[in-house]
Target: Flagellar operon protein TIGR03826
Amino acid sequence: MAELKDCPSCGAFFNYTGIRDVCASCAQSEEKKYEEVYRFLRRRENRAATIERIVEATGATETMLHKWVRKGRLQPALFPNLGYPCDNCGKLTAQGKLCDSCTQELSSELRQFEAAKEFREAVSKSETGTYLADKRK
Model:
């Protein structure tokens, strides 16, 4: 079911159906900008362009580029210097929500937490075992 929302780009009301985040006129202008960016990136000399260079050459915003990469419209496999910010540290990443270093750090902390939890459970069991051993005597 459609709901009425404000367009984040121009502030106009539009029927939000879950497909687009902006109104029809802003979506159309974004699509034109996407085509311009894609044409720019398709040229051999521009395939390794950085986000700053693309913004400078086409006039697209960094937010638009991040959104297109996140949605898979611009693929970092074809354009190696594209990505979107990591949700944790802001460093550019090409897949998932976290960059590689944040993923490794989170995994390390999770392993440490699990080891501490096992240690606490082992201590708790040993204390319980001692109590039962004393009770049996």
